[in-house]
Amino acid sequence: MAQPEIKQTFCRICEALCGLEATVEGDTLVSLRPDREHPLSKGFACVKGVQYAGIHEDPDRLNHPMKRTPRGFERISWETALSEIGERLREQLRRHGPRSMGMYLGNPTFFNYKALLFAQDFMRAVGSPNLFASHSIDCNNKLKVAELMYGLAMAHPVPDLVHTRFFLCLGSNPTVSQMSFVHAPNALGQLKEIVKRGGRVILVDPRRTETADQVGEHLFIRPGTDAYLLLAMGQVLFAEGRCDVERLKAIGNGAEELRAAVRAWTPERVEPITGIPAGELRALARDYAEANGAAIHISTGVNMGPFGSIAYWMAQALNLATGNVDRRGGLLMPKGPFDLLSLGSRSGFGKSRARTRVGGHEAVYDALPSGALAEEITQPGEDRLRSLIVCAGNPAHSIPGGRLREALKQLDTLVCIDIYRNATAEHAHYLLPATDMLERSDIPLGMILSQVTPYAQFSERVVAPKHERREEWEIFSELLLACGIRPKQGNLCSALPQVNRFLKYLPGKLRVEPDHLLELALRVLGDVSLSRLRAQPRGAFLPPTQPGSFLGKRVFTPDGRVDLAPRALVQDLTRLAGEEARFRRHAAQGDSGPRDVLELFLVGRRERRSHNSWMLNNSRLRQPPTNVCLLSPEDAAQAGIRDRDLVAIRSEGREIVLPVELSDAVGRGVIVVPHGWGHAQSGMSVASHLGGANVNDVIPGGTANLEPVSGQAIMTGHVVQVRRARPATAPANDSGSRGPPAALPGAGPSPRVNRSAPVEPEGHPR
Ligand SMILES: Nc1nc2c(c(=O)[nH]1)N[C@H]1C(S)=C(S)[C@@H](COP(=O)(O)OP(=O)(O)OC[C@H]3O[C@@H](n4cnc5c(=O)[nH]c(N)nc54)[C@H](O)[C@@H]3O)O[C@H]1N2
Ligand SMILES: Nc1nc2c(c(=O)[nH]1)N[C@H]1C(S)=C(S)[C@@H](COP(=O)(O)OP(=O)(O)OC[C@H]3O[C@@H](n4cnc5c(=O)[nH]c(N)nc54)[C@H](O)[C@@H]3O)O[C@H]1N2
Ligand code: SF4
Ligand SMILES: [Mo]
What dihedral angle (degrees, nearest 10) is formed by the CA atoms of 622, 626, 632, 634? Predict the structure, then answer.
């Protein structure tokens, strides 16, 4: 029996990257806990990370390559899988050309440096522009606006949470999510520190969130209207001379156009749109300008709205106009262990100009909008998408509209590289089992530019891969060879296995892995070597980000100046003005007396114990039996809806039925539905025994619902029809529901949940 050994690693589920400590015996994981000695996360970790053993050991995990047969999925060898897939793809490429091949990269790919590098390299080697990624159902607005204003999609000044005195945060629930585009473990703790220092935290949200319940001040807003709020803040700041226009002119172009863009949006005009009283809005703008170090931050609640790009533009522009970018307590531009921005700029990373075949939607951060995926498959044409490789993603579940599920059936070849047989895999021809985060080494390159406190950590693999699980980079390399694609110059993906095949014949068991390339990159370009990181498994602090190191120095536009009023955004203001009447109408509707059907704005919610579509299968995490929607008691009363009733939520001819909880934390005119639920069809036995419904079934999808500047799918603030379906006590009858059966609250948990390991308590900050 191997001796127990303790290993430090870090969690790669969300952007907090919390330090974890694992006890292992040989290659068996014994336990996982928050790393109390981790200099940055200081013993904080949430239950999803601490209970990751439930994922690592899940009997539902994909452990072997599988092939669809008339009898269902059957196990095949890696050799057979690679050669069969290779043969199919080779033939397809020969007949229909590279464009007919596509790839979708899901969220966990961006927490896996090797998978990301090799997936992109694979597509370059194939020569297909058809790369899709989850960032177009998450944050494309930010990526596009950064490209327009700063010249690089990955250039995002990060709120200096450690020093700021005023944090205005729109569309984020840090207590649950740990934030996005901000690497700050224990986000709630960090926000509480701001208040403790005498600063202010203001959360703008259509719901009084778990965060707003615990820290700072909360401002209700009508969904989808944040851009109007920010424009009006800009109007106040310029009108009252609180912007340093001369400084703006020194660092960028378009200061006058920016001033003109906000001029008409007075707080009085915006009040009936956002629901925020003009006086409060004016005070907010003044307090922000007067705070000595302030940051406006927007996140997915705004990204996914109809004007995500204008909102991010305004957030950046106001931060710049008040002198808060590149200053302590405002927002800083981190550099990372090596200058990723300069490297990205030189290498052309993130600058693809590809467009979709249907509608000509442009790539953002090298990926086409996921909302176009279904049409790229179904619209006839010689170069329509005929095969798709999905890596660490669940597009059939996570992309709004539900149309993709039908489209996937039309593919000649669908290959899923995943740790589970998820909803997308139900349409796949081949499933390839990937390693999980404990089974591979990693450095969080994707998150390094979001760091409040610059830090580098490298983790070795904690245990060897179980069964036949393989790392994605190896899968991509082997697949490329199997497709008969010859290595091109600079293609890591095809070069590495070739080199390794050669090395096999030399003495000494030499083998080149991506970590060797990382070592080289850090040695040549970096502030910290891989050997130092290996010797310090809890990671190392990097030099703090310096104020004044960004503007005028590392802006990557052709002239090195910020574009303060990019044309595409100025033009999009016409669309925003056109929608004004719609929001005003909703405001005027107010209390129109009793009615059967409510028209409500649909917004989302993340839950502590789940993560997008894949954490519900972790039997160590106790889940409620279904997702539950939230509604204000006043709205509910209008349609005779009572607490725990089932309500039908309808949009565009589709309907889901879910139990409702009445809550005064929800603004009027709003219904809140958590995503990630509704797993009736998948090989995830715990999740599919739960009830619930996939909210994406009632969110309009496709290219008609893309935010025009960035191609971000519009996912929040759609109007849905809501009516009482059944009282809480009636037996469930799901006729009329296009979603999976909605379980009643209190329905029994799945059998797998019962035979789960004991549930350990959540790790808390010290
Ligand atoms: N309605 C609605 N829809 C949403 C959202 C919302 O708020 N509301 N949120 C959106 C957001 S922010 C995002 S990021 C997207 C996510 O969209 P996707 O990335 O398409 O979906 P996920 O549910 O994150 O699926 C991740 C998949 O990766 C697998 N996986 C986990 N770890 C690994 C690994 O190490 N290797 C491999 N190969 N696979 C792994 C999981 O099993 C799962 O199948 O969903 C979006 N969809
Ligand atoms: N536990 C858990 N943590 C997660 C995830 C998870 O699924 N579960 N997902 C991870 C991922 S992929 C991401 S991208 C991050 C996202 O992290 P965040 O961006 O913080 O996302 P949410 O926690 O969903 O918070 C979004 C908030 O926006 C609000 N909102 C909705 N519409 C609007 C609007 O129009 N205006 C405004 N102002 N607010 C609005 C919602 O009510 C919600 O409170 O979280 C990550 N962390
Ligand atoms: S907050 Fe939870 S899921 Fe996110 S990195 Fe930390 S432990 Fe992992
Ligand atoms: Mo996300």
Answer: -130
Q: What is the DSSP string of 459-497?
A: B--SSPPPTT-B-HHHHHHHHHHHTTPPPPTT-HHHHHH
256: its two tokens: 């006058």
Same structural domain for residues 600 and 718? yes
* Alpha helix segments (H runs only) across 537-675: 567-589, 633-638
Percent helix, strand, coil in the chain, to 5, is: 35, 20, 45
Which two tokens mark 359?
Answer: 């509608």
pLDDT in tens, 122-163: 999 999 999 999 999 999 999 999 999 999 999 999 999 999
Q: How many domains does the chain have?
A: 3
Instruction: Find the 107 Cα to ligand 1 centroid distance in Å.
Output: 5
Pick the closest to residue 374 from 415, 353, 402 (CA basis). 402
Amino acid of residue 641 = I
Looking up residue 610, the CATH number of its domain turns out to be 2.40.40.20
The pLDDT tens digits for 523-551 are: 988 888 999 999 999 999 999 999 999 99
Determine the residue of 169, 182, 270, 300 to mutate for testing ligand 2's pocket, defined as the one with the most ligand atoms within 8 A of the Cβ atom. Answer: 300
Same domain, 31 and 164: no
CA–CA distances in Å: residue 41 to residues 440, 701, 765: 21, 38, 8
Domain boundaries, position 218 = 157-332+557-571
In a 10 Å sphere around its CB, with 0-12 CB exposed, 13-18 middle and 19+ buried, how is residue 508 labelled? exposed
Assign residue 32 a region (left: φ > 0; alpha: ψ between -120 and 50; beta: otherwise).
beta
Measured in angstroms, how far is the CA atom of residue 677 from the centroid of ligand 1?
12
